[in-house]
From TrEMBL, chains A, B:
The keyword GTP-binding does not apply. It comes from Streptomyces tamarix. The keyword Nucleotide-binding does not apply. Residues 13-67 form the HTH lacI-type domain. SMART domains: HTH_LACI. Keywords: DNA-binding, Transcription, Transcription regulation. This is LacI family DNA-binding transcriptional regulator.
Length: 343, 343
DNA sequence: TTCTCTACTGTGAACGCTCACAGAAGCATG
DNA sequence: CATGCTTCTGTGAGCGTTCACAGTAGAGAA
């Protein structure tokens, strides 16, 4: 009796134990484990019974050592600031990816590259083959880390369209431009004509595309473009507040506002409220994201819903396809206008 | 030229390559890799140079295969609902744990156990030794999964005190009770006497402890306990709204409100606003959590800050210690009253 | 000198798995 | 009867590490 009795973990069964139990060889067990081709029904059944009986679970390290695959993927966040962790969409994305991967029995490794030291460490880790692919979430595009990984031949899928890259890199994105178009069309349909906008940072795809949609629709409607009605925001509450105040100052006759994120829209509502404007009577306000906060503002926010649940599943799908040898692909998903009280 | 030119990954250098490059044996390289004991300075230097030159990164699968350790830990979320992903504290926790682990070069595997099928899959995965330990985040305690893992001898650290378990399981928690005491004392100091509370779910440690703190301080102050001033909430916006409305109905003379979470407090503020009560003039409102939302309410919320950054570092510290063979430990961290405009 | 001790180094044997290959058995075809 | 094909099964090698062990060299003590 040399075994420790204080929560000691027993040595788990190996493929050998299963083989002995089933009366077959390691090879046959391995074949059952990997799809069951070229295995007789009798052996198949015997092996499955032995697996159930022994409680066998494959040792992924041993498998990875020989296959060269790790059967895991990284979820990489490259963000100097903590912004992503304040973004409710990020949660949905992370959760969705985790679960979509879990369906394939693939664990997700969370990696956060804030400092330069972290970037180096993570690059080494990834390029050493410790993950089979990377789900990349970074707001500011043109990320050197993304390039390094791509150059190293690591399967990669970005969330949102990377700008500045002409190279082939997979991405999955909501149709930002079309969403913005829907919102501005909606505001026009309400009879509004002095429509201001608070954009996202213009080094982000969302910032650029949503502004483009805004301009396109106004142009199509014959409303002359007025650059005084455009301010650049930073996706923060404070930024939205400042942006709205600035727009009111530039044009007190403003009758609608398209804000490129709900969080900024929330800030804008505060500023409008403080300025004595009624929403939506005096100024209609449209947001973007359909974050949980959108329903708890007063009035509840009309916004554009991005299909985050589908985005995560698509990212995983495209990444796994790429790991499987397929070429990079771009997927663009439609958005949806959610009408609430603010317009 | 048989090498694929389309992003093919080269075979990475092994310990053998490093040994050859440095003119030493595998054993010496391995010793350098694992602390460098019993290695001459000359060999040490030669190996380090060779590692730099070859770009060698240890193959963790090969290492894990023989050591039996995986050098990774799981971050396990056992939540039937999506609640955690709406909780901003959760983000801070996840981020903090990831980074604290990264400092030890240990990857974090995110696991979400929603359905029963997922629980089984994850249990198998963990007990098979694919992670060295688990950081457990579950709101509702008495989780069968936690018990199963503990019984399997898996190192485990919970976030928040597990209730219902008399057994020894490590945990790290903020001092909920003391935080609640601070808040209620603060409200008393403001001269308030009809102090209501909206609790968290009473099957969560936070729900129980914060209510206990509330009762203790009132008792110490000689304020008779009035159960009509206590309603049970669910940590949701809507729950806070309903709770505040109910309390106003039960006692229109209410002059203070201690709400067990900021999100509920936000809901409560809406309800009070709708009922025509001024905050803090008519009713002082105190929250709990110091979530980002606390500063964007109107008025800004007085609240109790939980040291989430320290909680995450402590969880990691305790878990690694336990993996290293130390006994389970409980860590309780102090909270801080953050005074803002709502009191 | 000889022995012991310490500091260091190299080597073979695992770890648990997959893969390539060799073979066996069954059956049809020449 | 040989030959080929298909379906199935077992075996040896090897993936890249660590670990235990055996050794070597040099210093100091007997």
């Amino acid at each position: 009796m040399t075994m420790k009795h204080t929560g000691g973990r027993r040595k788990p069964p190996t493929i050998h134990d299963v083989a002995r139990e089933a009366g077959v060889s390691r090879g046959t067990v391995s074949r059952v484990l990997n799809g069951g081709h070229y295995v007789s029904p009798a052996a198949q059944e015997a092996v499955n019974a032995a697996i159930r009986k022994t409680g066998y679970v494959v040792n992924r390290h041993a498998r990875s050592l020989i296959t060269g695959r790790s059967d895991s993927v990284g979820f990489l966040l490259t963000e100097p600031q903590e912004r992503f962790f304040e973004d409710p969409n990020f949660n949905v994305l992370l959760r969705g990816c985790t679960q979509a991967l879990a369906a394939h029995d693939i664990p997700l490794l969370l990696m956060i590259a804030g400092t330069e030291a972290e970037r180096r460490r993570i690059t080494r880790y990834i390029t050493a083959g410790h993950v089979d692919g990377v789900l990349l979430v970074s707001s500011h595009s043109g990320d050197p880390l993304a390039e390094r990984l791509r150059d190293a031949g690591v399967p990669l899928v970005a969330c949102g369209k990377p700008i500045g890259h002409t190279s082939k890199v997979s991405y999955v994105a909501a149709d930002d431009r079309d969403g913005a178009r829907d919102m501005v069309r909606h505001l026009l349909a309400l009879g509004r004509r002095r429509i201001g906008t608070i954009t996202g940072p213009l080094d982000t795809p969302g910032g650029v595309e949503r502004l483009a949609g805004y301009r396109e629709v106004l142009a199509e409607a014959g409303v002359p473009y007025d650059e005084r009605l455009v301010v650049t925001g930073d996706y923060s509450h404070a930024g939205g507040e400042a942006g709205a105040a600035e727009l009111l100052r530039r044009d007190p006759g403003l009758d609608a506002l398209f804000v490129a994120s709900d969080l900024m829209a929330q800030g804008a509502l505060s500023a409008l409220h403080r300025a004595g404007r009624r929403v939506p009577e005096d100024i209609a306000v449209g947001g973007f994201d359909d974050s949980p906060a959108a329903t708890s503002t007063d009035p509840a926010l009309t916004t554009i819903r991005q299909p985050w649940d589908r985005i995560s599943t698509e990212m995983v799908r495209v990444l796994l396809a790429q790991i499987g040898g397929e070429d990079p692909a771009a997927v663009i998903l439609p958005t949806e206008l959610i009408r609430r009280a603010s317009t």
